[in-house]
Amino acid sequence: MDNYREAFLIEQIYATLFSLTNKLQVQGDKYFDKLTSRQLMAIVAIAHLKEDETTLNNIARKLGNTKQSTKQLITVIENKGYVKTVPSKMDKRAVNVTITELGKQVTLECSKKSINFFADLSRDFTTEEMEILWLLLKKLYRFDGEVQDGFEEEAYLETGEDKVEILKRNLEKFGKRRNEKR
Questions:
Q1: Of these four, 1, 12, 37, 150, which has the most CB atoms within 10 Å of its CB?
Q2: What single string gives the DSSP state of each residue in 67-108?
Q3: What SS3 state is found at 149?
Q4: Helix count (H) and strand count (E) of the chain?
């Protein structure tokens, strides 16, 4: 066991993840007009929770964030008219966050643009490398015993558009852009 090497490596992993998170936010913001990457992820988190479970605590847990930071984020997008808070039917002390029609439209616009971002991010990775990276990131997330409540399940975002057609278009766009030469 080489404690020096292991300590060095985890320090470098931490510093790289910290810098990478910031870089992903800055670069991701360039792809969107009306939302930042953090605001979009907050709406995506809401869309991945059942309607009666969209409390600030659950949204924060989904994002790996604090309740206070999540509240600030929700306030900003609520002021833009993309979400609204309503009293929880399950817990009188809590509020639920719902996505407005305008919020659904903006999220759909951003999701179409995010295809380009994701294609650009993944261009230099094989499918196997992405699977390994995802596995390792989930393993790192569990360092404190908490398992990530991810985004694998279907989102609850009804936009009135044909989901199958949107998915088909987005996958074609993703594949074409991902395979383009730089």
A1: 37
A2: HHHHHHHHHHHHHTTSEEEEE-SS-TT-EEEEE-HHHHHHHH
A3: coil
A4: 7, 2
The token pair at 175 is 């594949």
CA distance 48 to 157: 8
Instruction: Render pLDDT for 136-177 as a digit per residue (tens, 0 to 9).
Output: 999 999 999 999 888 877 777 777 777 788 888 889 999 999
Domains within the chain, CATH numbers bracketed: 31-178 (1.10.10.10)
Q: Which long-range CB contacts under 8 A does 147-150 form with residues at least 24 apart?
A: 148/64, 149/61, 149/62
Q: Summarize pLDDT for 84-106 with one digit per residue, the tens.
A: 999 888 888 889 999 999 999 99
Structure-token pair, residue 83: 């979400």
Q: What is the pLDDT of residue 39?
A: 96
Token pair for 21? 């998170």
148, 140 Cβ separation under 8 angstroms: no
pTM of model > 0.85:
yes
